[in-house]
Amino acid sequence: MLNVSIIGAGYVADLYLRSFALYPEIRINGVYDIDTARRDAFCDYWKLTPIASMEALFEATDAQGIILNLTNPHAHYDVSRACLEAGHHVYSEKPLAMQMDQAHELTQLAEAKGLRIASAPCSLLSETAQTLWAAVREDVAGKIRLVYAEMDDDFIPQAPYKKWTSDSGAPWPYADEFRVGCTVEHAGYYLAWLLPMFGPVRTVVAASANLAEKETPAEECAPDFSIGALFFESGVVARLTCSILAPHDHELQLIGDKGVISIDECWKNDTPVKYRKRFTLRRRLMNAPFAKKLRLPKGETHAKLGRKGAAAMNFALGPVEMLEAIRDARPCRMSPDLALHINEVTLALQNAGETTGAVQMQTRFTPVAPMAWAEKLA
């Protein structure tokens, strides 16, 4: 059995439990939340054991198991630190921490204690991301020069978000979502793909703004729009846009010397990966009107989750990867230095404002191995 203990029984916890249901080898030791009513409702719904305190949860957690930190983002640092100090591996929801000094402290503490720490998102491990990455490695589109990545979610301040609830009845934490910001919440979905594909980012040139603050119920709001140019050490440049204002668009385009590889949606683990070859016809430069679908060899990839709500993502891919890495005594693909670099790039985008300009990244990460079932395309 692979053992998981959970701290935080809010909205996102239900997404993890729906995913864990795909893995009969996962055992949930227990759940702790400072809101006992929320904890009990969650445990009643999923038939889990409520735990009265963090200390009791630590005692119930196996040394080879992990603690899943699903708390409010502003609590991630304190909770993860407490878990590490108690001698437990930690998988945290994004971000690793809201400040870089805190993120550094967590990774250093984990290393000093010989523990693992990782941070969501884990969709890098998905079939779509792995197919895309295999296409990059095989130069399907030639050398990739430019990337366009969109994470726009429509005009959320005008959405009926107060009616959104999870499977066990947890309300969408709208005040916290507006306070944390869409960049911290969503930039990682594409950063976690692009960084393993193209290596570390050297420089971020970004801008961010809060354009609809008066439309939200939160007392303090993070930017609801950001745009950044990411200059990778490999020479690739990516434009990443995040907003909760512009019409829904999660398209990703990798522009290469021979054509364009693209997907329409990163929140679905088996979104088709398409390739359009570039060619000339008489005096015109064109992209093929019909896209070729790129596929991995037939066979098992990972468990898939049906769509419910905004996403069809298997949230368990990251925790399972960490648990298997601990069991097999191998490096985890969701490494602490990758989490640290994602955190740094994300905060550079979020905090750019109108005048920050170029920011040099200080962190780097070791190369990430692709999944064994995704080493090459069909």
From TrEMBL:
UniProt domain Gfo/Idh/MocA-like oxidoreductase N-terminal: residue ranges:
2-117
Spell out the molecular function terms from Gene Ontology: nucleotide binding
InterPro entries to which the protein is assigned, alphabetical: Gfo/Idh/MocA-like_OxRdtase_N, Gfo/Idh/MocA_Oxidoreductases, GFO_IDH_MocA-like_dom, NAD(P)-bd_dom_sf
Matching entries from SUPFAM superfamilies are given as:
Glyceraldehyde-3-phosphate dehydrogenase-like, C-terminal domain, NAD(P)-binding Rossmann-fold domains
Q: Ranges for the GFO/IDH/MocA-like oxidoreductase domain? A: 130-261
| Record protein name field | Oxidoreductase
